[in-house]
Amino acid sequence: MRILITNDDGINAPGLKVAEAIAHQVAQDLAGEKAEIWTVAPAFEQSGVGHCISYTSPFMIAELAPRRFAAEGSPADCVLAALYDVMPDRPDLVISGVNRGNNSAENALYSGTLGAAMEAALQGLPAIALSQYMGVGTKDLDSVFQAASQFGPEIVRKLVANGPWDRDNNYPIFYNVNFPPVAADLVRGVRTAPQGWRHDAFFGTEAHHSPSGRKFLWIKGGPQATPSEPGMDLTLNLEGYVSVTPMRADLTAHDHLSTLEGLFE
To answer: Which parts of the chain span the membrane according to its record (predicted)?
Structure first.
């Protein structure tokens, strides 16, 4: 079994080590001594780049150790680099993360962690994105990734073995897993959930001036501790549950197709 690990926090991010530990445990359980773990991750942080690819410019890639590479590109670039340059054989699974911060609700739309999983799915590979929600319950922990470390291996094993992947559809399934912002012993369980929406969490800008007087804009996010409708991914995370959300790279608003057909006919 070959597992590819990537992320959007960068090759030196602590969450990447957690993902690698999860991958090793899953691979050993499912394949024993035949397990191979490959890591191709961004050379520097790429949070918020979504499904971006470096279509108009090349990027450098460097081997840091056997089966471990850093690429000066996006998370989706890293998946492409692994598939078409680095790995001699295609992986059986792609794990993206563990992201430091949640990718619940609308955060999923901006996430480079999800972008890598989406690209892997479009390439015909099973892919799982793992993210650790941060909050009051994690700030004083020795490891903020407690919940991900404890619950990640079993969730990945179950999805690999039994999760629907719909490989025959035009847009195959990938999974978005978010661990709640609490210590591992306070996690209440695992729930499947649809993607939610924080209605007050818009991105915006904040202006600052350099000593030379030049104006710079910083991107600001909205509050992350506001729940949405009951049963949504972020609401369950804030209630102490791990959320598992099946996703597709299909942005069609299917519920409005018939309305538009009637409008334009």
So the answer is: none
